[in-house]
Amino acid sequence: SVPPVLSDLSATAPVPDGDAVSALVSHAVADTRTGPSVGAIVIDQATGAVISQVDAAGPRTPASTAKLLTATAALGVLGSESHFTTSVVRGSSGAEIVLVGGGDLLLAAGPGDPTATNGRAGLADLAADTARALRLSGNTTVRVRLDDRLFTGPAVSPTWQAAYLTNGFVAPVASLEVNIGKLRDEEYPPRQTDPALSAARVFADALAAQGIAIDGTVARAAAAQGAATIASVDSATVHEVVTYALQTSDNTVTEALGRMVAVKSGFAASFDGATKAVLAHLTAVGLDTSSAQLADCSGLGDGSHLSARLLADILLLATNPAHPEYLPVALDLPVAGMSGTLVDRFTTSGARGVVRAKTGSLPNVTSLAGTILDADGRLLVFAMIADQTPPGGQIGPRVVIDGLVDGLAGCGCLAPSA
User: What are phi and psi of 133, to 5 degrees?
Assistant: First the structure.
């Protein structure tokens, strides 16, 4: 039993006046800082009625707001309380073991931390359990092999610009990685070029530290079907991993979530299979994906096109009491001025603390989609995508979009007669 800390939404809170909201939306869309290609929509969450929209059905480059699609599919297909398991199984002989990747890119090199999402499962713990089992079976010298075949196809999307890798915005996508392949514990550090093999070497070193002699170097080899499991460690829950991806806007973790959706759904665990699996789930739950295109699951690559309306529909689904399985997609978004990728936005605004939203940023693309609790206590769903912003970076278009959100949060936008 958890005591409530917030009151329920008021069923009688007034809906903002359509003309007043349209004036705010039109002003933002017409601002030259957002460029000539803008889609925007504001919806009353309780009724699903559109209060205002401008070209909301037009497909546009979404940037990281595309992560809303992958997060929704991950929760719906995988289940919020499931885990990703990294295991060690018997190899082709008693002198060989195989490390098998299960989709966890947030492994710790050392012991796992039960309070963390990034680092919940530790390779040092896996090595300790493996060493114990090996000693009990009389093996103190082993060859270490890696099976990372769970994910297929290229590890790097051809739709990604080379600079995204060199600048640390993303790592090659593998079925196991230590700290998302980061070489340093920074937001955008250099990454391992082969994160799975690097993780296997970390595991081998940890096994050696437990007194097990390592025969030769770590190499790839397929685990035999039905091979006996020696030891395993579990990731944080899918709910926690989804929250991590939404809060940090981590591209690599989101790509892995998409691949795990593909595995569970019977698609190839590749870029192509993952995007198909995500869209297939959204279609199956009744969303209109007919104009949607995904180049990848994170929104980083060139070629994704989504409408502001689809982003808003996902948030309507996530806030629908009939579908509590999707609630984290809305509830665990960054909070304006307080957390995640919105921690440094809206800090002095009336929107601080009452807006939850997913950010999106690419060259010449700025987007934002989320929920707003306005001054009258009415919950609004909004989405805005500007995908031809002028040169000068993110500051100008963000000021415009943030101004729209701030204005919506400040409603009281009642019709004059009210």
Answer: -70, -40
> How do the residues of the chain divide into helix, strand and coil, expressed in percent and rounded to 5?
35, 20, 45
Residue from 52, 64, 82, 198 carrying the catalytic annotation: 64
User: Does pLDDT of 152 surpass 60?
Assistant: yes
Nearest-angstrom CA–CA distance, 227 and 165: 36
CA angle 266, 267, 272 (to 5 degrees): 170
Give the three-class secondary structure for 114. Answer: coil
- Torsion angle (degrees, nearest 10) of CA 185, 108, 134, 229: -130
Q: Residue 90's beta-bridge partner residues?
A: 97
Looking at residue 390, what DSSP letter applies?
P
Apex CA 56: angle with CA 50 and CA 62, to 5°?
Answer: 125
Contacts of 131 (CB under 8 A, 6+ apart): 207, 210, 211, 212
Q: Is 182 a catalytic residue?
A: no
Give the C-alpha separation, 86 to 112, whole Å.
Answer: 12
3-class DSSP assignment, residue 245:
helix
User: What is the three-class DSSP state of 100?
Assistant: strand
Alpha helices (H) along 1-122 = 18-30, 67-78
**Active-site pick, 52, 67, 87, 270:** 67
Pairing of strands 141-147, 219-220: parallel
Q: What integer pLDDT is reported at residue 277 of this predicted model?
A: 98
pLDDT at residue number 418 = 45
Express each pLDDT in 217-248 by its tens digit: 999 999 999 999 999 999 999 999 999 999 99
Q: Which one, of 326, 348, 344, lies nearest residue 335 by Cα?
A: 344
Helices (DSSP H) in 102-194: which residue ranges? 123-136, 162-166
CA 374/CA 409 separation, integer angstroms:
4
| End-to-end Cα distance, the chain | 41
Annotated active-site residue 367? The verdict is: no
17 Cβ partners below 8 Å, 6+ apart? Answer: 413, 414, 415, 418
CB 352 within 8 A of CB 409: no
* Structure-token match 């800390």, residue found: 5
Phi and psi at residue 310, in whole multiples of 5°? -65, -40
**Pick the catalytic residue: 80, 157, 235, 249?**
249
Please confirm, yes or no, whether 10 is among the known catalytic residues: no
Helix-helix angle 18-30:395-409, to 10 degrees: 170
Within 10 A of 96 (CB to CB), how many other CB atoms are there?
Answer: 16
Radius of gyration, alpha carbons of the chain? 23
